[in-house]
Structures are given as structure tokens and as C-alpha cells.
Amino acid sequence: MTTQSISAGLCRLGWLLVALTVVSPVLATASADPSPAPNLAGQSLTLERAVELALRYNPSLQGYAAATAEAQARADQAGRGLNPELSFEAENFIGSGAYSGFDAAELTLALSQTFELGGKRARAREAAAWQADLVRLDAELGARALRTETTRAFLAALAAQIEVELANEMVNLATKDLEFTERRMRTGTASEVEASRTRIAVATARLAAATARRTLAAARIQLAALWGSAEASFGDVVGDLEAVPAAPSWAELSARLPGSPRLKRWDLEANRRRAEVAAEAALGKIDLTAAAGIRHYQDNGENAAVASISIPLPVRNKNQDGRRAAEFGLTRLDAERQAEFVALRSALAREYEQLVTAHGQVITLRDEILPLAEQAVTDMDQAYRKGLFTLTDVLAVRRTWFEARGAYTAELARYQEAAVAVELLLGGTPIESPLSQEND
């Protein structure tokens, strides 16, 4: 091989390296839009189905999926080693005298590799892997929160649906009262004042029914929005609000608190911070760079091997401050976890109080107040038609019965909402009821 061909080859290689440094490939990525939620036109909706739709189509969970994939990709990247470097060097050319051209040039092509010492790559990969686990747990917590939000929205729609049924029943009763009063007025046994009062009762009942329907419509739209639907096309929501088993004891629930997923997150966080301390400590270790190549001498056409080793001198920077910062982060972990535990216990106590109170109210209303109110309405209606009581007496008793039924529905919903909140805090299903039995 001639001197000119070697020189030309080395020069072309040098320009190729420059071109590869300047020009980078362009990568195009395409992401398909999430499929729309199915049309539920007229179909009855159970809680299980509502949760399934929310978990599948809610955009927030799609964001969690992307974050999880991102974290895993970063963990994979952290485990990749450094690339070798190919260098081209030209010396002793375009100078003066004998060095005015390329005849005396020295051309060197070398390959170098930096070797990371101190376990840097392994430590970085471990820290990134723990971070990926944290992101996955955050995705699970996000799914739990969405399930809880969907359950609450479903409860609101179910309670509003029952309120509409009660309001319609009141309209029917008030309409029957009006028909009865008008018949009595035609026979001369009822006055115009009594008929006007009955008409007011009908109008009031219809107004209450219209308000209940608007409340139901809003609750249905809020529920449908959780799976990305702009319209609540589904039929009736189906569920049993009246399943209210007694709550477990406070001691039983509080004993389960340390197993809450929100506290388990701090265990992963502790592992991640310990890995960060180790990674920062490893960054303080020196690396070694070794190079080897071939040098060509233009003046005599000879070639020679070249080799080098370089080691940085850790005189000023041993990453001591990075390690110190990571250690401080690990030190404050216990305080942060304890603060989270206190907050969770406080929230659990609050929801437990709601649960126990609502349970007591439900039992009292169901077993004592409602039977008495229903019997009073029946007796009053019969007595009124016999002329023993006035319409005012009838309306007062009926209003008491209606308010008791509304309070019963509200307490049932409050009980179920508290049960859902306890489930979210503890990460399980501590209170078995048809509304809390869902597929994980």
C-alpha cells in the first residue's frame, strides 16, 4: 500500500468522523389516539362496569402508563455502558519550511474507551430501577384513586336516582290529594282555600321533582366524564345502597394501617434514596481511559503503534457534596414517613367516625323512624278521607315521612362513601358490601 493511499484513507476517515458528529439521525414516533368509550345507549350500569370503563378509558391512567414506560426506559438506559471513541489526529502540517504541506505530517487514528470504576453503572441502574418501581406504584395508587372517585360518582348518581323516585312519588300523592279535594269541593265538603292549598302542594312537589331530575342529570354527566364520555347515554344505575354491614372495630382497622399502599411507597422511596447515596458515592471514584491506535509518518512512510492511559486527579471534586446531599435526603426520610403515617391515621379516624355515625343513623331510620312515619302517613290518609283531619295535618305528616326517607337515602350514601374512603386508605376491601366488591 502506497503512502498516498494510506494518507488519503486516513483523511477520508477523519472527515467521515466529523460528518457523523455533525449529522444526527431523525427518529419519528407515532402514537395512536386512545379508542373512544363504547356507547352504552340505554344499558343499565353497575358499579363494576363503571369502574371498568373508567380504568380503561380515563386519560389520567394513560398518562400513568406513559410515565411507567418512561421510567423503565430510563432504568434500561442507566445500565448501558459508555461508547468507545474513535479519534483522528493530524499533526505537523500547513506550517513553515519542511512543514508547509503534508509531506511531514503525522496522522494518528486511535480508539479509546473509558472504564467506569467504583460500580458507577450498577449503582445508577439500581437507583433508576427503584425509581421505576416508584412510578409503577404511583400508577397503581392513581388507579385506586380513580376507582374511588368513580365509586363516589356512582353513589351520587344512585342516590340522586332514588331521590327522583321519591320526588315522583310525592307528585303522585299530591296529585291524588288534589283530585280527592276537587271531588270534595264539587260536593261542597271542601272549600276553595283547601283546594288552593292542595294545588300549591302539587306545584311544590313538581318543583322538587324537577330539581331532583336536574341533580340526577348532573351526577350522571359527572360519572360518564370519568371514562371520557361527553354524554350520559347509559340507562339506570343499578346498585344496593341498603347493604350496610357493621363496621369493623377501630383497633382492627388501625392495625391494618401500616400495610397501606401509601406507606409502602415510603419503603420503595427508602430503597431508592439508599441507592442514590451509593450512586453518588460511586461518582466520586476515578475512571480510567485507555486508548490505542496507529500513527502514520508522511515523511518516511512508516507506521507505528500508539497507546495511552489517562486518569483524572481527584484534587478538587470527589462528588463529596453530591453524596452529602443524598445522605441528607435519606436522613429526612423517617420524618417524612412518620408525617405521612400521622396524616393517614387522622384521615382514617375521620372516615371511621363517618362510617360508624352513618351506620347508626341508617339503623335508627330504617328500624324505628321510617316504619312509624309510614304508618302515620297511612293512618292520616285514611282519617283525612273520613274527615277527621285537615289537609294541613296530612301534608305535615307526609312531609315528615318524605324527609325521613330522604335522610335515610343520604345516610346510606354517606355510609357507602365512608366505606370507599376507608378502602382507599387501607388498600383493600375492609367492609364487604355489593358496592365495594369489584374486580382488581
C-alpha Rg (nearest Å): 39 Å
Unreliable stretches (pLDDT < 50, length at least 5) are 1-33, 430-434, 436-440
Order of helices and strands: HEHHEEHHEHHEEHHH
The first-to-last residue Cα distance is 72 Å
What's the CATH C level of the largest domain?
Mainly Alpha
What is the overall pLDDT average? 83
Q: Could you state the CATH homologous superfamily of the largest domain? A: Outer membrane efflux proteins (OEP)
Given the structure, what is the number of helices?
10
Tell me what the CATH architecture of the largest domain is: Up-down Bundle
Total beta strands: 6
Q: In terms of topology, how is this protein built?
A:
Layout: H1 3-22, E1 45-46, H2 47-57, H3 59-78, E2 85-91, E3 106-115, H4 120-186, H5 192-225, E4 237-238, H6 250-255, H7 261-283, E5 288-297, E6 303-310, H8 320-331, H9 333-385, H10 391-426
Parallel strand pairs: 1-4
Antiparallel strand pairs: 2-3, 3-5, 5-6
